[in-house]
Design a protein that fits this description.
- This protein is of the alpha/beta class.
- The protein has a single domain (about 1-150), classed as 3-Layer(aba) Sandwich (Rossmann fold).
- The protein has six helices and six strands, in the order E-H-E-E-H-E-H-E-H-E-H-H.
- It has helices at about 15-25, 50-60, 70-80, 100-110, 120-130, 145-150, and strands at about 1-5, 30, 45, 65, 85, 115.
- The protein has a six-stranded parallel β-sheet with strand order 3-2-1-4-5-6, sandwiched between helices.
- The longest helix is centred in the last third of the chain and has 11 residues, at about 100-110.
- The protein is globular and about 40 Å long.
Length: about 160
Amino acid sequence: MIFVMVGTHNLGFERLVKKMDEIAENDEVVMQIGATSYAPKNAKYFAFTGLKSMYDYIEKADVVVTHGGIGCVTDALAYGKPLVIVPRLKKHNEHTNDHQLDLAREIANEGRAVMVLDIDKLEDAISEAKTKSVKRKKEGDNVVDIINKYLEGLP
């Protein structure tokens, strides 16, 4: 099962939700779609749910696809799931700036996720994430250090 999270931002993420709905024709997909106006036809979906439910879906997932929000990214990493990050981009009116791009790039550079900018490459990225070895959290390995490194690089 592929679990998709778009977070709680007040702007929708049609680009990701529509592409994942296409992928759901051949794969089991569950999506948290937030403020997205597009209603998937092939995937199970909900706008919002509680944390326990989100964690249950993450735990059951074979791969997690998420926007570049820090909460969703760290939740998926905490469960050691193969991860694909599709950052929300300002040019698509998905966010007010491109800060998610910076975080996604940092996490991908650490080898903890596959980052997707071209939505047409999402299906390939999911396949790659499923087959590559995931850098799982180990004793002394702190996601907070990665996030702090990212934050220190901000202007």
